[in-house]
């Protein structure tokens, strides 16, 4: 359970730290402006790696066991973090350091992606059935801790070394390896203890589906999964729709923050803005943990989609007026983060580990998570052109419609228990 929680916190930190890193690297006294295309390559490399990692390590969880697969995915994260922190200029062009970084961000993404299906299933398999929902939700809540930790560390390093110091971005990237190394140490102790308890007869494999997956094969087990289409509608499609919404939120963030607080002129300003928004969303994670056992994931997911839809609709229809009421704008926008975390952000992570049978659970959890990353790609393709062509209010109205579709698919695809 501890390994699952820490791995999820580390993953979220490694995912979000890049935005501050790129801002530091783009400052005039470091590498300067290299253009949006080069910077977006660094961001999208991680997303592509995560999609691959979710599918790869999700499948490995059923083949070699959850525990062994988790050790591999954490090791991949550590390599990605160290390689990213060591990025250097390989040619006369300063862009080369960004492409070097992008290559290791892809490796890091593979490791980060693998944590999604494995951490959820690790938490699920170690708890009694009645406690699984809250346990997996608790593991997921560590995402919020990682999100908070990234701007806090950035502010600390900036205070120590200054905004334009190259040491800051390297420390931010390299720090992500430290929890991973500790997790590998914990994993080694756990494996040694299991081997000793079994009298030296092996152990450490973990994962209930390992025998069945080897005997019949993953694809055969997937074909035998009852109500597969309906289950994927409730897990994979809902996760994809939520990540489309989440990308819309991320795209809108600098616009809302500028309207509420003014232009973020320094890296410190950006880190403080990130910290404020992440702090607004943080309680939603723990509200999910508290109510998951009593309300159930289906109700929480429906509630989250509906309220997010209402909030997006409110922002979209009153955008021109809201810019004059900065506090109200921040409350409404922050509310979308709260009800994402007390809603589909938590439940889409949780549901696959409770929906599918153990023989292919990790694999289909990985498929569901990868569908979420497909949603992020769709959001990137959809929202930016809409924002330029029709305005930010149109983005929010589209998000409102997508949220209601997510509610409908939850009603149809997610079982009440």
From TrEMBL:
Keywords assigned by UniProt, alphabetized: Membrane, Transmembrane, Transmembrane helix
Membrane topology qualifier: Multi-pass membrane protein
Recorded superkingdom: Eukaryota
SUPFAM superfamilies: MFS general substrate transporter
Localization (cell): Membrane
Molecular function as annotated in GO: transmembrane transporter activity
Transmembrane regions listed in the UniProt entry: 69-90, 96-116, 136-161, 167-186, 232-255, 299-319, 331-351, 395-414
PROSITE patterns (alphabetical): MFS
Record Pfam families: MFS_1
InterPro entries: MFS, MFS_dom, MFS_trans_sf
Annotated Major facilitator superfamily (MFS) profile domain residues: 1-417
Cellular component GO terms, alphabetical: membrane
Protein name: Major facilitator superfamily (MFS) profile domain-containing protein
Organism: Triparma retinervis
């Amino acid at each position: 359970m501890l390994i699952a929680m820490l791995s999820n916190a580390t993953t979220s930190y490694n995912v979000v730290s890049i935005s501050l890193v790129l801002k530091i690297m783009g400052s005039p006294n470091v590498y300067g402006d290299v253009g949006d295309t080069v910077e977006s390559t660094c961001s999208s490399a991680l997303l592509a790696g995560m999609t691959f990692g979710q599918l790869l390590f999700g499948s490995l969880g059923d083949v070699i066991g959850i525990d062994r697969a988790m050790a591999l995915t954490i090791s991949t994260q550590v390599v990605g973090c160290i390689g990213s922190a060591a990025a250097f200029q390989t040619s006369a062009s300063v862009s080369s350091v960004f492409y070097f970084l992008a290559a290791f961000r892809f490796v890091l993404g593979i490791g980060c992606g693998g944590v999604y299906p494995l951490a959820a299933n690790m938490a699920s398999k170690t708890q009694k059935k009645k406690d699984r929902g809250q346990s997996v939700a608790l593991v997921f809540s560590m995402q919020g801790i990682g999100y908070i930790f990234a701007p806090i560390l950035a502010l600390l390093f900036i205070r120590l070394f200054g905004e334009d110091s190259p040491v800051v971005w390297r420390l931010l990237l390299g720090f992500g390896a430290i929890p991973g190394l500790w997790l590998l140490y914990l994993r080694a102790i756990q494996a040694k203890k299991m081997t000793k308890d079994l009298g030296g007869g092996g152990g450490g494999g973990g994962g209930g589906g390992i025998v069945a997956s080897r005997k019949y094969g993953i694809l055969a087990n997937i074909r035998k999964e009852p109500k597969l289409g309906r289950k994927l509608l409730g897990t994979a499609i809902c996760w994809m729709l939520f990540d489309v919404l989440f990308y819309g939120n991320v795209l809108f963030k600098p616009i809302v923050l500028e309207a509420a607080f003014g232009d973020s002129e320094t890296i410190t300003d950006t880190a403080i803005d990130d910290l404020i928004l992440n702090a607004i969303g943080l309680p939603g994670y723990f509200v999910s943990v508290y109510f998951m056992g009593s309300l159930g994931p289906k109700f929480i997911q429906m509630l989250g989609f509906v309220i997010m839809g209402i909030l997006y609709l409110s922002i979209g229809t009153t955008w021109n007026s809201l810019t004059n009421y900065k506090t109200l704008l921040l409350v409404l926008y922050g509310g979308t983060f709260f009800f994402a975390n007390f809603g589909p952000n938590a439940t889409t992570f949780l549901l696959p580990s409770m929906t599918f049978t153990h023989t292919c659970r990790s694999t289909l959890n990985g498929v569901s998570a990868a569908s979420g990353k497909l949603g992020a790609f769709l959001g990137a393709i959809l929202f930016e052109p809409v924002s330029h062509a029709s305005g930010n209010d149109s983005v929010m109205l589209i998000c409102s419609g997508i949220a209601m579709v997510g509610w409908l698919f939850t009603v149809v695809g997610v079982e009440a228990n």
